[in-house]
Specification:
By secondary structure, this protein is an alpha+beta fold. The chain is built from three helices and nine strands.
Length: 174
């Protein structure tokens, strides 16, 4: 697995990033756990976010000056952000068993459960594990559950739906 993570400069902190707009027009922000980086207003994500699109754990972002929570991606760290949403609470016995099975299978590939909320899970897993392998695990475990849905948080352009293709240089033979 390739990992070219930037050095950790400062201690952990949180920043607020824009996750979208509420139907009433208000900005939706999410607090993200990060490590400051050498370049001004640059941060490495320590967990994949639940709602902020386009980024995952180990990505380095730079906040746009003069904006609230807007950013540019400086470097992709190679992780996919996988989000699982449920109509049922993941703390119920049935849903907890599903979460444990999914977490166990993704951990075997080096993935991590970054966030566990009542009705959402967020995983980070390196793209080198392969889309087919990751999707196979997700579909095998989740497809029989009509109240569950999964999606990538950093694979498709939120406006066009086209693949972002940031992984091509990471997967390219050296």
């Amino acid at each position: 697995m390739k990992e070219n993570n930037p050095p950790v400069i400062g201690g952990e902190t949180t920043i607020e990033l824009i996750a979208g707009r509420h139907p009433n027009g208000e900005l939706v922000v999410e607090k993200i756990l990060v490590n400051p980086q050498p370049e001004e207003n640059s941060f490495q994500l320590l967990k994949s976010p639940l709602f902020v699109r386009g980024v995952a754990r180990t990505d380095v972002i730079q906040l746009k000056k003069g904006t609230q929570g807007q950013f540019n991606i400086v470097k992709h760290g190679g992780n996919l952000c996988v989000r699982v949403f449920s109509k049922q609470d993941f703390n119920s016995p049935q849903m907890e068993a599903i979460e444990q099975a999914l977490t166990s299978e993704l951990e075997k590939l080096g993935g991590d459960l970054d966030i566990k909320e009542a009705r959402a899970l967020v995983y980070s897993i390196h793209v080198s594990c392969g889309f087919n392998v990751i999707e196979g695990i997700l579909n095998d475990i989740l497809s029989s559950q009509p109240d569950l849905a999964w999606l990538y948080g950093n694979v498709y352009d939120p406006d066009s739906g086209e693949p972002l293709d940031w992984w091509q240089p990471i997967l390219a033979p050296e």
